[in-house]
Structure formats: C-alpha cells, structure tokens
Amino acid sequence: MSLQVTKTDEGAVYDPVFSGLLEDIPGGITVATDRFPTATKEIKKGALLNDGGSGLFNVIKTVKTTAANGAGATVLAIIPTDHLFNVGNYIFLWGAIASKITRVSSTAIAFAVGVTTAGKVASGAVLYETATVATATALYDADCILRDNIQVRDEKGEKLANIFAGAIVHGTVDESEIPYFVTDADKVALTDRIRWA
Hints:
mainly beta, Virus Head Decoration Protein, Chain: A, eight-stranded mixed β-sheet, 1 helix, 16 strands, 4% helix
C-alpha cells in the first residue's frame, strides 16, 4: 500500500503588516473600546497601542493631512477615512497648538482654534491626540502594536466590552501597511524593539 497525497496545504498566509514576529505579550492584552467613533466597527492590525497601566491598552489616534492649511484655517482635510478621532478629542496642529475637535467626518476634522501664521499645517503632516490645548505632548506613547484586527462593535452597532487581543513588542513592521499613521516620537519609543521596514 502506498501513500497518495490528495490535497496540498495552501501554505501560510502572508501578513503584510509584520514581516517578522519575534515576540508578543504573553497571554495577550485587553484593548479599551470606549474611545472610538460610533461608526468604527473594528480596529485594524498594526494599530499602535499604549499600556494605560490599569490593565487596559489604548489605541493611539493619528491622522495625516492631505492638503496644506494656512493661517486661520479651522478645518483639515485628512486620511485615513476610518480614523479614530471623536468630537471633544484634542488634536495637535503641527508647529502650532493643540485644539479641541468640534466636528469630524471621514475626510475632515474641524477644530476650535484657527491655525496660527507661525504654525501652518503642511500637507502630509502626521497629527496626533493630546490631553489638552495646553500641551504638544501626545496623550499616549506607543508600547506595542496590535497583532490582528479586532471587532469593537457587533452587527447591530452595539459597542463591545473591552476586547482581548494579541500585541507585538518585538519584530519587523512594514510601515506602509500600517492602517494608521506613526509619529516620529512613536518610532523612537519603539526603535529598540521594532524594526521599521
């Protein structure tokens, strides 16, 4: 009797975000789900996370401008369309100040205080969340990267409780495949453990 192969394995699925996984957080993490817009159904793998210290990890919110904005501007055209900012969050206006968000859509963010002459927002600037208008410091620093997509709302749109997930702390990441943008400060915070390709 001989062995016949009737079906072959399709092989491993290539994960474009991670080209090398060396270490994750043993046992996984819990991601806080109370900071997302009501339209957000899932958080995509590759999102940067911060260890809030209370057992919950927070997703770091960033956007990139798609057009230059001059003095007095109170609306920024941004990407990605599935960004995670809410009304009431504070956003740092590159080279200027942070401002409270007054309106959001998939392609624009409006804010309370106009851009200053000295702080014109360039096209392609990565903007991040702050705690108040009085600081340029990011609300959260990156500690790890989300390993897989996670669902944060069910089919009816109801918010799910804090979600268990895998998080990468050491490996190689293809930055062009990350779903949200990475600030230079976050790259520095992860440089000793994450190689950016």
